Amino acid sequence: MKGRLITILGTTACGKSGLGVALAKEYNxxxxxxxxxxxxxGLDLGTGKITAAEMEGVPHHLLDVAEPGExxxxxxxxxxxxxxxxxxxxxxRLPFLxxxxxxxxxxxxxxxxxxxxxxxxxxxxELEALPIEELRQRLTHAGVALDEDCYHxxxxxxxxxxxxxxxxxxxxEREPDPHYDVLNxxxxxxxxxxxxxxxxxxxxxxxxxxxxxxxxxxxxGVSDEFLEGLGLEYRYILHYLTGAIPTRExxxxxxxxAIKRFAKRQVSWFKKDKNVHWLDMEADPVGExxxxxxxxxx
Length: 298
Prior knowledge:
With 298 residues, the protein is α/β, with parallel strands linked by helices. It contains 13 helices and 8 strands. It starts with a strand and ends with a helix.
């Protein structure tokens, strides 16, 4: 019999982490983070990483498992997530996969198979010289759909093209028999509410020291190229620190717009999955989720 896995997915600023903690406490669970930026140590405010106090004693996995600048792939995430989930199940507890990185979530829930195409150094050198927009076009013209976390990530785009040139599916194939029985729970608010939550959270995180976090990362040797590749908060704050964005007010305006565009892309990504139970976050999401989990476990 397959192990049971609950996923909590959805757009940024919609309460995934808090809901995950509430449900994990109710069902003797542990949480595996599915966020492509929260794997990095020191990327805290900019990624909205849950704090120790907010965890309320619930064990969390796959936070702070890589150093900034280190290459962290979806294949590595999948392997480490499988190990964490299997460990939770072995302890007789219920695993919750919580996060907004769609490719990471699906790699686990759908059992993607990743192939190890050898790096092509000559092709890589050629690709590194191209503008990032040309890399995107090369993939989209070949019919490759770009996940939100690939879009601004030059190393990942280069790796996808290498796989394409090697005759492989750039992302993965799918196993006919995924590792777990999965219940997918989605969190979302009406568009206007999401935008308001994004604005409020952005101001709060800036007041808490998000600019200083990025400045400290640069001071400690994290490259501008790596920060640029992270997108969103890290890219726009980098541009602010280097003078490309002239004022804090312009930073708030431009970054707020970018996060809202990102949230819209997340909605499009997740809405393609017809196996997600979308919770009414303006009603009683914990109660609704508990009913669904109870039915699933029964």
